[in-house]
Design goal:
272 residues; mainly beta; 2 domains; four-stranded mixed beta sheet; 2 helices
Length: 272
């Protein structure tokens, strides 16, 4: 009787080939459905001439690239942020809005759903009416990729001055928001003094070209920090509150990701 010798190597090849064919037919991919990264979103603001702008964010969602506008949304935060005053988020201060695990992939939109917002102006707090364009959600177009085991850090930079519109006796909320990848950002810091080294109240404006990027008005101990700036070349204008001091502008300031550019003390001169 003829007996065939068992060949383990040949059997392994056959099994591997069958597994490959099965995987192709089943639509296997290198990333599993449970592969996740982490999404961190914070909020900061620019100054506006109001006492308070109190915002409530009820829900934050992100949209997967390639999906239709009505589907492909993932809710990443459903816990209300509570009422927070945008005007407190200045000069380097920020608020954590989202910290959550999300599926790996590419996303192209962020949506904020707001609750009952208020504004304080002339010592009177009243309702901040949502513009019709955001009543079903404030959609922000911004693309980012979530990679397995890594954290994506995004900054939502509200421009309070441009986000609040007055219509008669009513105040309308139409958010103007810039999104920035925090890990691709740098910052500018410094302090403002007069010629006698006394702290000077001043407004700080940083811009690149004709685009104003960040402003600061509250300067504790005369210091300022303009954070989450995209890499590039900037100018910083210093406008003192006192009419007896000259304004000053520093040009050609280089901002590099993950680094702080410190301008040191900026000394303003008294008008002659």
């Amino acid at each position: 009787m003829n007996l065939k010798r068992h060949n383990p190597r040949r059997q392994l090849i056959v099994v591997a080939w069958c597994t490959f064919i099965t995987c192709v037919l089943a639509g296997c991919s290198s990333g599993g459905a449970n592969d996740q990264g982490e999404l961190f979103i914070k909020v900061l603001d620019a100054p506006a001439n109001y006492q308070e702008i109190n915002i409530v964010v009820d829900r934050v969602s992100i949209h997967r690239t390639g999906s239709t506008p009505d589907v492909g949304w993932t809710v990443v935060s459903t816990t209300s942020s509570g009422k927070f005053n945008l005007l407190h988020l200045l000069n380097g201060r920020n608020l954590q809005l989202v910290l959550n695990k999300v599926a790996v992939g590419t996303y192209d939109q962020i949506k904020l759903n707001y609750g009952a917002c208020t504004i304080m102006a002339d010592d009177l707090e009243q309702s901040l009416q949502q513009d019709s364009s955001i009543q079903s959600g404030n959609t922000i177009l911004y693309g980012f990729q979530v990679v397995e085991g890594q954290q994506v850090q995004l900054t939502l930079d509200f421009d309070a001055y441009r986000s609040v519109l007055k219509n008669g006796e009513l105040y309308m909320f139409k958010p103007h928001i810039r999104v920035q990848n925090t890990l691709l950002s740098g910052s500018i810091a410094g302090s403002v003094l007069d010629s006698g080294r006394t702290v000077v109240p001043a407004a700080i404006v940083t811009y690149t070209g004709i685009d104003t990027v960040r402003t600061a008005s509250e300067l504790p101990y005369g210091s300022f920090q303009l954070s989450d700036l995209p890499e590039g070349i900037y100018s910083v204008a210093v406008v003192p509150e006192s009419p007896f001091l000259e304004a000053d502008t520093i040009n050609n300031i280089k901002v590099v990701r993950r680094l702080q550019t410190n301008l040191g003390a900026i000394h303003l001169q008294y008008r002659k």
